[in-house]
Amino acid sequence: MAEHRSMQRAALLDAARSLLSEGGTEALTFPALAERTGLARSSVYEYFRSRAAVVEELCEVDFPAWAAEVEAAMAAVDGAEAQVEAYVRAQLALVGDRRHRAVVAISASELDAGAREKIRAAHGGLVAMIVEALREMGHAEPRLAAMLVQGVVDSAVRRIELGVEDPSVVAEAAVSMVRGGVRG
Known about the structure:
mainly alpha
């Protein structure tokens, strides 16, 4: 029984990712979740009390996996500058990932305070990954520099999602800006 519930919950989260990446937060409804998973709408409420609860669980599941990929990319290179570059490139490489599209949709939506706090904490953990690299590079305010680097990443993500420029062009421009900024 517990395994069945776990599988149903995972199916609901997967359906939520799809709905968010396809249609944004407006598409994430309990009737749509029920339809995607073959469950009765009332059954969806057995797993999640609200849309915000679905969002919070997605954050709890997807942000750590996403952060682990960024961390692995940073660990695969030597030197502080290379780590900062890997941080930027890894995040931009994840833009096409369905988990990322869901997280962007979530971030753009109206969320309750609990869900917003989870997203803020997850982003804070991501930014914390490069603070030490920036400290090694001699930045007097490495946390501030890390936040500014993340701002460049966030802007690059939005440009990639607009689909106006080639993603590789956006990535190279973002990496160039960050390299120049962290050296300065």
